[in-house]
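Workshop exercise sheet. Pairs work together: one partner reads the sequence aloud, the other fills in the structure field after running the prediction. Swap roles for the next sheet.
Pair: D.N. / O.F.
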Amino acid sequence: MYLKKLLATACIAALPSFASGTTVPVTKVIEANSDWNEFRFSKDHQEGGFLDTRELGERPNGVQESAEDLGVLTFSFSLTGRSALRVTDGWLDGDRFELYLRDTSVDNSVFTLLGQTSKFDYEAVGKGAGGDNIENEWEAAFHNDLWSSGKWYLEAGHYELTGKVIEQPVTLGRGAVSLSAVPLPASFMFMLSAFGGCFAFSRYRNKKVSEVA
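Structure field:
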């Protein structure tokens, strides 16, 4: 029991300051080349940190749960090659995020700022934020400037990702993250095949010379 408390304390200490709270932090393992993985957020709870997506039930006293009952969410993943990390807002537009990343393959590593998602100039188009709803069409949201998004490239390794909302017109929202491998460029593949051909020819030539000798 003491060991569990000690590990929980260590996990909380490793999280950014906004992740400190009375709820238990939640870690979700996601796979490389995975589909979109959701998170919740609320600027009024857990200092805006990413929240677990479990369904809200009732507290022991019978009162309906709210976002303050959700633990701060951390995504954990391992990459075997260069990959693209994508983050997007969804449902109602107007939310922006700040992302934090930790390389867990490094001893005593801490979360550092990865970056912020895009900002849309609502005044330029004469409208306010939070008026359009794309629901959970994450791919469409990522490619639509109304919904804040970001993309970062990560090298092979073991990581943890979390974040917080920094702009939010509505009190409770949802976003999502995804991972996808970055394919090698065609020119690089052509170069590899060329080297392979040269190597094969060299071996064939050396074999012929040794047979003559």
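Discussion prompt: Confidence is low (pLDDT under 50) at residues 1-13, 186-194, 196-201. What would you look at next?
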